[in-house]
Amino acid sequence: MSADRSHVDCGAGSRIDPSADVGYAAHVEGSESPPPTRIGDGARIRAGTIVYAGVEIGDGFATGHDALVREETTVGDDVLVGTKTVVDGATEIGDHVSLQTGVYVPRETEIGSNVFVGPGAVLTNDPYPIRADDGLRGPTIAEGASVGANATVLPGVRIGENAFVAAGAVVCEDVPPDTLAVGAPARERELPDRLAGPNQLA
To answer: Where are the coiled-coil regions (predicted)?
Structure first.
């Protein structure tokens, strides 16, 4: 028996593989019907991907295989969510964003426009795992920033506009705009000329 997709609004020219599940309705206590799922024009959603109910996505959205976008997430135009990438809900993502293969984005995260997040990067949101109920605070990745492959960004950290986090860095403190963060723990360095300026994702 097929699932009810009456709450899903998918725009013109969108292609969704048969094994993808768009509008997946997680059980919400006291809710009789799932919240709407809205996806703009020209989406390409590949096999194994799950997009929950209660997600709003702009035009030109694309996924790799087995990606996950959970509830209460807002996504802008021309966003890529790569293979096996997880957006764990309650997240805001701007326009022209590339989340490469295997990225983890936790709840309560903000990602600006023209942001690149490299393969295997992990963003975190729990300052004191299993030790204190201090609330979840995901990172903020500001407009034009880049996060390199396998980098780790700790809860509540802000990556400034056009900043660059090097591959493998562990970012424990805010990274100012137009700077480079390198190492574990990451240390601020001057941004080389070849990395300066906004991303060219638009």
So the answer is: none
